[in-house]
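Entry type: protein chain
Record version: 2
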Amino acid sequence: MSNRRSLQNRLIISAVLTVIVLGAISNYVAYRVVNYRLTRAFDDALESKAKALLSLTKVEKDGNIEIEFASDSMPEYASRVSPEYFLIISERGEVLARSPSLAAADVARMPQKHFTSQRAFDHPLPDGRMGRVLVFQGSPIVEKDSEEEWQPADPNAASLGDPLWVVVARERAPLDRSLRHVAI
């Protein structure tokens, strides 16, 4: 009888420990999946903003680049409270446009490795908050004759010049709050 009870206790303890370990592993995997998906959604929103900014950039017939940014249509870039940031940079590294929120800020140079492909990464914002930054490369719109409509740039056209880099940045605190809620 003692051996039977001892065997039952060992089986119960083994079963409980197995359930605890499997539960911990499944919770960890679920958290990692949710973390990936929330971060991806955050980055997708940044990419949409970068594409919107690129759509406001036009190459004129003479080769000059014109950026039709209006802070009324994108107030998040001119806000004094938790502003977002953008830069539009030529392939040569020349800053063509910057958000009003960067007007007085010294923009910290990002390592050149971030400009090799579209990518998102964490980086401190000019005001000290931790942010999420997305680097996006694309071609601006080419201006046609006045009677023609604007057309997306032809990437094979010799007159286009170099593509542009659009860098957008936003505070990552909302993402971090969501991840903390999931972790809890």
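Comment: The helical segments are 2-55, 173-183.
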